[in-house]
Design goal:
Layout (H helix, E strand, L loop, with lengths): L6 H11 L5 E6 L6 H9 L4 E5 L5 H15 L3 H6 L4 H11 L6 E6 L1 H7 L3 H13 L4 E7 L2 H9 L11 E4 L5 H4 L8 H11 L3 H4 L8 H10 L8 H9 L3 H12 L5 H8 L3 H13 L3 E4 L14 E4 L2 H9 L4 H5 L4 H31 L8 E6 L4 E8 L4 E8 L7 H11 L10 E8 L5 H10 L2 E4 L5
Parallel strand pairs: 1-4, 1-5, 2-3, 3-4, 10-11, 11-12
Antiparallel strand pairs: 6-7, 8-9, 9-10
Helix pairs in contact: 5-7, 10-17, 10-19, 14-15, 17-19
């Protein structure tokens, strides 16, 4: 896999590697997000062993591990006979790790080992406490099942809680980072790609720049043998015991059911069951729950809206799942028409997310320190982005327009009107305004922005 832009994560791992103390590090994140490649980059040119756990029986995996570690330490007997159990692994490492040279032992997809033996984390706890914690080791446990990684290593009741010295939740690449996969593409071209793949490296690698956007979708998603054809179903089956119920929830949200009651009506699920399922999907970073940014107690708010935040899931439930029967037999005409008519809606949603990230990462320093950033709405009106700081009594209002038409003064005037409806701060609050636009701004809007101090941002470039 191509390795792109994980400089911050690599630097953090390198810094810990040079700490001259034993490390028990937990690395976790969604499938396909790039954990394995990050580890392999980190392990390059170091005294290290990488072991990928799987669903084979434990005896076979210990045999393989013995072969890998035996080769690392030039132990032909170990290479031939393997290990008998995990405590033997830990004892062996204690005896052979040099105090002069740090050693990295990385286990990938650790949850598979736990599935085979529920007592595995207790064994690893004993192995760390009795054999490894005082050695010159950098021990990494990595996994894609986020729920299991948290239950086994991170939460207070986890067997390995208190042993870890650090952890990293690896998240998808940002738009700017992911753009490095296709540096020759324009902002608009890459936004179309990112709307489908998000910042998932494995998905980005399926896109070929020598093909049209339409052909890429057919070859990488619609074709039955394509890598991404059954990706969503595979991921849900790997993570969840009742994938059908979750599929129904996600389909309801994709169809526009954003409120809890509407989702319940669409799926027929009891409210207490739906609450649990929605929470699980949030933990998996597939959906997000939003409340108006000005809500004082967001966890108790009844104004919450649910949306699919994973770009590929969002695309798949809108353009693949409803047309699965046609797609399976290679009949793409209906879905292609829907793509032509509605894909821009997903692009608009993605553009809004990019604008929000850009505002936080690039423009906050020029304006004020953002305490919270999000959307605002009431029963009749909505503002794409609102950023605020309760201590300094400052607030920013922004609109994002993914349109072929330049933004005129009417959009700005309407934003100012809606801003007066937002209940925040004092009567003397300081207000800022920003407009993001795919197609730029009219001359009148540019002049008005200069007079009023409005921040204008066409696509990815500031005026």
């Amino acid at each position: 896999m191509t390795f792109v832009n994980r400089k911050k994560e690599l630097n953090m791992l390198e810094k810990r590697f040079r700490s001259n103390k034993s490390e028990f590090f937990v690395l976790y994140g969604k499938r396909r997000v790039g954990k394995t490649e990050l580890m392999k980059q980190f392990l390059k040119h170091k005294h290290a062993v990488y072991f990928l756990a799987d669903k084979r029986n434990m005896k076979d995996q210990l045999q393989e591990l013995g072969s890998i570690i035996g080769e690392q330490f030039n132990d032909e007997i170990l290479m031939r006979v393997g290990f008998q159990d995990w405590l033997q692994v830990f004892r062996y490492l204690k005896q052979h790790i040099s105090s002069q040279q740090p050693f990295i032992f990385a286990i990938d997809e650790y949850p598979y080992l736990v599935e085979l033996d529920p007592s595995m984390s207790s064994l690893f706890q004993k192995g760390w406490d009795e054999y490894l914690k005082n050695t010159n080791i950098f021990f990494i446990l990595s996994g894609s099942s986020m729920a299991m990684m948290e239950s086994e290593t991170l939460i207070y009741t986890a067997p390995l809680y208190g042993r870890r010295t650090g952890q990293l939740l690896l998240t998808p690449l940002s738009f700017t980072q992911a753009h490095e996969f296709f540096p020759q593409t324009s902002f608009q071209q890459f936004l179309s790609i990112f709307t489908i793949t998000g910042g998932m490296p494995a998905y980005l690698l399926q896109y070929k720049t020598n093909k049209t956007h339409k052909q890429n979708i057919i070859d990488a998603i619609f074709e039955k043998t394509a890598f991404l054809h059954n990706e969503v179903e595979f991921m849900l089956k790997e993570e969840l015991r009742e994938p059908r119920q979750y599929m129904a929830i996600l389909q309801a949200i994709a169809n526009g059911c954003s409120q809890f009651g509407h989702i319940a009506n669409a799926t027929g699920l009891e409210k207490h069951v739906l609450t649990k399922y929605l929470h699980v999907l949030q933990q998996l970073q597939v959906i997000t729950r939003e409340v108006p940014i000005t809500e004082d107690k967001p966890h108790k708010s009844r104004k919450s809206l649910y949306s699919i935040c994973d770009q590929f899931f969002r695309f798949w439930f809108r353009f693949v799942y409803p047309f699965k029967s046609d797609i399976e037999i290679g009949r793409f005409q209906t879905v292609q028409q829907k793509l032509q008519d509605e894909f821009y809606l997903l692009e608009s949603f993605t553009y809004e997310q990019i604008c929000r990230d850009d505002l936080v990462n690039t423009y906050a320093k020029k304006l004020f320190s953002f305490e919270r950033v999000g959307r605002w709405w009431n029963n009749h009106e909505e503002i794409d982005i609102v950023a605020l700081n309760t201590e300094t009594d400052e607030i920013l209002f922004a609109e994002c327009k993914w349109s072929n038409k330049a933004i005129g003064t009417n959009v700005y005037d309407d934003l100012k009107r809606k801003a007066q409806l937002v209940d925040f701060g004092s009567a003397k609050r300081t207000e800022y305004f920003a407009l993001f636009s795919k197609s730029g701004f009219t001359p009148a809007m540019v002049q008005k922005a200069k007079n009023d101090g409005v921040l204008l941002i066409p696509q990815d470039h500031e005026i």
